[in-house]
Amino acid sequence: MKRILLIQPPLEDFYTTPIRLYPLGLLYAASVLKVMGFQVEILDCLKPLRKKQLPLPQKFSYLKQHLGQPLFFKSFQRFGMTTEQVLTRVGENCPDLIAINSSFAAYFSTAAELVRELKKKFRVPVVVGGNQATCCRDEIKTRVPEIDYILAGPAESCLPRFIGENSLANARQEIISFQPLDWKKLRPAHELLEPSSYRIGKKNYLSLQASRGCPQNCSFCNIHLVFGRRMDYRTVSSVLEEMRWNYRYRGVRLFNFEDDNLAFDRGWLVEFLEAVATDPELERCELTFMNGLGYENLDGDLLELMKRAGVRKLDLSWVSGNADVRQRYHRPQKKDEAEFFDLLKMARRLGFFVTVYLILGLPGQSREEIVNTSEKLLEAGVLVGPSVFYLTPGSELQRNLKLPLEIAGDWDLYRSTAFAVETEELRRRDLIELFLYIRKRNLENRTRVFRVSTS
Ligand code: B12
Ligand code: SF4
């Protein structure tokens, strides 16, 4: 066993977010395999991000009347390579093992179709891992028996075990142990990607993680199934080393943190931001936290420090403006509404471009609450990020919500664009209207928000 090809599969949806498709999980998997002596390559099927319009799947036919209307999605699309292109690239690579990332329930059917085609054409074992593989391992086995192995959990633990149990290493590889590796001591294998393929505007970017795990219990979240409930931070120096190396050798100028709760330990964050702010080499770099930062530990001092460290945009998740709803879904409760708005005011004064994310359609949320909250936020000079509620496999809500099997059992519907989960208060029509309403109001406010934030 020598060559392993890691694949980020194509996806099919009404939209995607091109600036966040960095295959970080696969780069960690690649790093583990490299440490174990394998020859590894990455095939990112989302690069280049070609789009092809597809016929609207029958199961989304209820959206047909809305497609193409202003501010709504235009059409259902395939993003990335065609299956034929993937098969050609795999054929050229001649791998001994193919390992596919499956992060999303919503896109599992595309990944599954790819596996079936790969298995028809090549006599090569296929392994699948990632968030979706972890949360739905047994179900995947039943649904797609063509997959040879489904590996649950972080690559740092499941891959060494898998290699050991299946005797996949060859005699020349000096593997002393098949024990889990410490993710904090690994650096994701950024070098396997072409830097110029990952750009935001004119800047090369990358995504990275400084911490894993989250002690909160938000009912709609399933992250603990992969990374656990304990915060586990890297040392500040190792994060800086990763940043400097990529700055120097790959021209990276924007570092996007995909941590789930980076601001949990305020002390760590202060130390990190101070180190970036005073590092001569990283002086002109930008930091983003597109997966959102917890606002509970943020304050004026920290915001000023963030500014000095090259943060310009803030993505904050408030979920709902109704404290009862936040409590019902176990959101952190340390800051009340007044304190949250004070924070927004400070952030705006310092010139940050702020987006506050709301979920639309949690059971218990009402139309009035969402409209009032959105208006308050727009009044405070921030943009509103509308995130239509979707199910995540293995989350408390997904397990406990009483939904018809046509919804609960159909992973294709585990995406916000499906507007799949209707509640007593909010039917599908309401969700679509609210989504469009927020987009329209954002647009009306965008110029004002941008002007203030850059002045
Ligand atoms: C960045 C991100 C995105 C990016 C895309 C990332 C990509 N490369 O494809 C964007 C912004 C586009 C995105 C979109 C969506 N996302 Co998202 N996203 C994330 C996020 C925040 C970080 C991913 C990441 O880099 N993690 C860090 C890496 C290191 O972790 P990891 O990927 O899990 O990898 C580890 C293990 O899983 C494993 N592993 C991973 N791959 C492999 C492969 C093999 C072979 C093996 C053995 C192991 C292995 O080892 C890795 C290292 O330990 C995750 C949450 C999270 N913390 O993971 C959600 C997450 C993946 N997203 C999720 C969802 C649902 C979505 C949406 C579908 C939601 C929606 N709006 O409908 C949208 C789709 C929108 C669209 N049309 O594009 C869910 C998926 C849940 C599920 N199982 O279905 C997650 C888990 C968040 C959540 N709990 O809600 N997302
Ligand atoms: S949503 Fe964020 S804060 Fe809540 S449990 Fe998940 S990772 Fe933690």
Short description:
With 455 residues, the chain is α/β, with parallel strands linked by helices. It has helices at 24-35, 83-93, 108-121, 131-135, 137-143, 155-165, 224-227, 236-250, 266-277, 300-308, 323-328, 337-349, 367-379, 396-400, 405-408, 428-454; strands spanning 3-8, 11-13, 39-44, 51-53, 77-79, 97-101, 126-129, 149-151, 199-200, 203-208, 211-212, 232-233, 252-257, 286-288, 313-319, 353-360, 383-388.
Can you lay out the helices and strands and say which pair or pack?
Layout: E1 3-8, E2 11-13, H1 24-35, E3 39-44, E4 51-53, E5 77-79, H2 83-93, E6 97-101, H3 108-121, E7 126-129, H4 131-135, H5 137-143, E8 149-151, H6 155-165, E9 199-200, E10 203-208, E11 211-212, H7 224-227, E12 232-233, H8 236-250, E13 252-257, H9 266-277, E14 286-288, H10 300-308, E15 313-319, H11 323-328, H12 337-349, E16 353-360, H13 367-379, E17 383-388, H14 396-400, H15 405-408, H16 428-454
Parallel strand pairs: 1-3, 1-6, 6-7, 7-8, 10-13, 13-14, 15-16, 16-17
Antiparallel strand pairs: 2-5, 4-5, 9-10, 11-12
The protein binds cobalamin and iron/sulfur cluster (SF4).
Describe this structure as you would to a colleague.
With 455 residues, the protein is an alpha/beta fold. The protein has two domains: 181 residues, Cobalamin-binding domain (Rossmann fold, 3-Layer(aba) Sandwich), CATH 3.40.50; 261 residues, tm_1862 like domain (pyruvate-formate lyase- activating enzyme). The protein has 16 helices and 17 strands. Helix 13 runs parallel beside helix 16. It is globular.
